[in-house]
Amino acid sequence: MTKTRIVSLSLGLTLAASGIAHAHATFEKDTAPVETTFKAVLQVPHGCDGKPTTEVQIKLPEGFVFAQPQPKPGWEIEIIKGDYQKTYDNHGKKVSSGPLEIRWKGGNLPNEYYDTFVVRGKVSGFDKETVLAFPTTQLCGTEGKVVWDQVAAEGQNAHDLKSPAPTVTVTMADAADPHAGHGGHMAAAGGSAKVGDLDISGGSVKAMLPGAKVGGGFLTIKNGGAGEDRLVAVESPAAARVEIHEMKMENDVMRMRKLDDGVALPAGETVELKAGGLHLMFMDVKTPFKEGDTVPVTLVFEKAGKVDATFPVGSAKGGEAAGGQKHH
CATH 2.60.40.2230: does it fit domain 4-171? Predict the structure, then answer.
């Protein structure tokens, strides 16, 4: 398969006079399907000739768009923005500019320790398998500097380079899968979806009475990763908005409140959104949900990104979160 190599800087740069250690700065995962959200986890294995790392800079190549860096305690973040070479679609909105470089500054990572620096973005605009290079620089105070910017030429082995840039290979979506390239999908009949370390199952919505404007939705999320994530938002073209709610007993009265901060997903745990507890509320529904139909939704997670799903519409019987109930 033909590959295109994209480099954001001149390949003539080399390590500064501080020299180079054997371990390279690399990404934890180095492949991503086209038109999906990718979490680039940069692994920094050492400092500059024994000196602690105080700043990490990552230049973002064309096609890695809508980038969002993950904060790190003790480090400041600088986001350098500019124009993209092309225009990209962000859920119906045309975007032609955004972050081009991320800098974590003012920290202190001793040479003896390993750490990661994370930036999330979408890989977009490719029609064939492509290798994206992310030129990276480590600064160690005013005395040390390591630059990872070299990219292997066609036929060259990247392991032969002294200072290889971290790379991500963009792969093509499977044309046989109509949902490919959306980060995941959920089949209408009890299917499942996966995005990052999260497994989504049991997604469904309740059928609504004629004329009702509010519908309830449910799902189960298992976090198989080592870090906490959070369901921060849900979107659907079937409703004006989707809110995350919680029902709980207070002074012998069942009360419901909107969770503006979303739902925490602790590492290694399963969180169930169900009737009578945590659940979704579809507000100002355009057409009341009918049993046997399906409802498209997009789940938005703080770290894992977005995933498209299709929830089947079940019976209106049972479950206090069904559309238009008196607690609303």
Answer: yes
